[in-house]
Structure formats: structure tokens, C-alpha cells
Specification:
The chain is an alpha/beta fold and 293 residues long. Helices cover 38% and strands 14% of the residues. It has helices at residues 10-14, 22-33, 52-55, 61-68, 73-91, 126-132, 150-155, 195-205, 207-213, 240-255, 270-285, and strands at residues 4-8, 42-46, 97-101, 139-143, 162-167, 186-189, 217-221, 260-264. An 8-stranded parallel beta sheet has the order 2-1-3-8-7-4-5-6, sandwiched between helices. Strand 7 (217-221), helix 10 and strand 8 (260-264) form a beta-alpha-beta unit. Helix 2 packs across helix 11 (270-285) and helix 10 (240-255) packs parallel to helix 11. It starts with a strand and ends in an 8-residue tail after the last helix. The structure holds zinc ion (ZN) (2 copies). Residues 145-147, 223, 225, 232, 267 line the site of one zinc ion.
């Protein structure tokens, strides 16, 4: 069994962004209700707020000061702080893998602007933290959110120690045509229009690239706006996400020493997160509670 951390603070649930904000708190509570924290290898770490110094590793002071004046400041700090805490604990070997439940998005956050429910680059900020603490250098992000991760791509475009595999629909190209450009470490692939197609796209495009790149830690942005009751591709049922988790965890186990951090946020309705969150934790911690399904 793996030692799994769940990083969440009540602020992320109570102050989450979007009309689907309720899914954040419901997702966390369902992990509690399903009794997963009673397993000794599953631990809830209450996320701590990130510091301005940590955020300034990727963002300008002007942008930090701007976000500070919005209602999204506090939830952004706790969301980034959860990611930083998880990154540190996984890379130090205190836990094997983690689920970070954030209250805001992150992958549309650039150095001094952002859109789409994003303020600071949540996963992106885990990487300079790891490097500053000399805990790791080479990282990979697999992003299965509906939309193109323009912020991550922009911040890391010249960083050959960061492999970015982004699933996005063609609609997102409108935002910035330069983002289409691929390099040896930056890729975009289409989403599937069904559970089966999405899963097979991930199975086809991800494992060999991770194997070849050999990251020290794999981040998976489990964007759930691909769910049929959300606002993205609306192509997937809740059953797709535990299956994606299984595939991605297997890749991390084979090629990254098991080091995996899954990030979710505020883009799926409560009935979906209630189903998905405990099953992701179950998968990460190898509990087998739902193996009959
Ligand atoms: Zn999205
Ligand atoms: Zn993309």
C-alpha cells in the first residue's frame, strides 16, 4: 500500500470559485464519509497558505497586488499552499503520492495576468519550490482539463526540464495561436468524445513520453470540466476519472518511483466529485475498497 496525503483546507471548499464551487467541499467530505481517513496510510494534511515569496517565484508583484484586492486572494493562497506542501512531502519521501483539492484553477495563470477562475499557477508553483529546496529538477505535468493550459505553457515554454502533456480541444487555440507549437517537451492532444476515447487517448500519448523523459515527479491536473454535467467537453461520466487515475498512477509507479500528485479544483458538480474523489484516493492509496465496481 502507498502512503497517500490529501491536501485540503476548508477555505478551499467554502470560498471556491465558480457556479460548481459546491463540488469542492462535497468532494472532500465524501472522502471523510467513505471512511478513507481511517486507513493508517491515508492522511489529511490541512493546507497551509502559500507565502508571497513563494508566489513571486512565478508571478509579478503587480499581479500579486492585484489578486490581493479580490475575493480570490485567500482561497488562492490555500490552493497554492496545498500544492507546495504536497510537492515537498512527496519529494522528501514522507508520503508516496497526494491529492490536492484546490478551490481555484491555475493553468490559465501567466506571470502577470490570468483568466478562467485562475489567479496563480497552482501546479506551476510546485516546481520552483522543489528546485529552491533542492528536492528535484525534472517534472512532468499531464493535464486532462478541457481547456488548453496556456498559462503553464507560457511560464514553462523554455524549460526543457518540464514535460507538459496537455489534452485540450481545438476551441482553446483561439486564445493564443503560438501555444500550438510543440517542442520535445511540450505537447497537446485532442480530448475524447466518450469515456473510452478519452482513456485510450491518454493511454496512447502519455506512458512512452513519461518513460523517455524520466521525471522525478508526475503531476496530473485532473480537470473535471470534461464531465457530462460540466461546461467543457461534457463527454465523460464519473466512471472515467478513477480509470484515468489508475492509468496515470501506473505510469508514475513504473517511471517516477510512484511519485504522483493529483490536483483537482472547482469544475464539477457535487454528485460527480462525491463519486470521484474517494475513488481517486482509494486508487492512490491502493486500498481496493471499490474493486468490485
Ligand atoms: Zn477548463
Ligand atoms: Zn493544450
Amino acid at each position: 500500500m502507498k502512503r497517500t496525503g490529501v491536501f485540503y483546507h476548508d477555505v478551499c471548499g467554502k470560498e471556491a470559485y465558480s457556479s460548481l464551487a459546491m463540488g469542492v467541499e462535497e468532494g472532500f467530505k465524501s472522502i471523510q464519509k467513505e471512511g478513507l481517513f481511517s486507513h493508517p496510510n491515508v492522511t489529511w494534511f490541512e493546507s497551509e497558505p502559500a507565502t508571497e515569496e513563494e508566489i513571486a517565484r512565478l508571478h509579478s508583484q503587480q499581479w500579486i497586488d492585484h489578486v490581493k484586492q479580490t475575493q480570490w486572494w485567500r482561497v488562492s493562497l490555500y490552493s497554492v499552499g496545498g500544492m507546495i506542501g504536497a510537492t515537498e512531502k512527496v519529494l522528501k519521501g514522507e508520503i508516496d503520492n497526494a491529492l490536492v483539492i484546490a478551490g481555484v484553477g491555475g493553468h490559465h495563470a501567466h506571470r502577470d495576468n490570468a483568466w478562467g477562475g485562475c489567479y496563480f499557477n497552482v501546479i506551476g508553483l510546485g516546481i520552483p519550490h522543489a528546485r529552491a529546496k533542492s528536492l528535484g529538477r525534472r517534472f512532468a505535468i499531464v493535464d486532462t482539463d478541457t481547456h488548453h493550459a496556456d498559462g503553464v505553457r507560457d511560464l514553462y515554454k523554455d524549460d526543457e526540464d518540464m514535460l507538459h502533456i496537455c489534452f485540450c480541444d481545438t476551441f482553446s487555440w483561439v486564445y493564443n495561436s503560438d501555444d500550438r507549437m510543440e517542442s520535445n517537451t511540450k505537447f497537446c492532444f485532442p480530448h475524447g468524445s466518450s469515456d473510452e476515447e478519452e482513456i485510450s487517448n491518454v493511454e496512447r500519448e502519455v506512458p512512452d513520453r513519461i518513460k523517455e523523459f524520466k521525471p522525478e515527479l508526475l503531476f496530473w491536473l485532473c480537470g473535471m470540466d470534461t464531465h457530462q454535467d460540466s461546461y467543457g467537453t461534457a463527454a465523460l461520466t464519473e466512471k472515467a476519472y478513477p480509470e484515468l487515475a489508475r492509468i496515470i498512477k501506473q505510469i508514475a509507479d513504473e517511471y517516477c518511483g510512484g511519485k504522483l500528485i493529483v490536483k483537482t479544483c472547482c469544475n464539477a458538480p457535487p454528485h460527480a466529485t462525491r463519486y470521484v474523489m474517494p475513488r481517486i484516493v482509494d486508487c492512490l492509496a491502493e486500498l481496493g475498497k471499490y474493486s468490485e465496481e
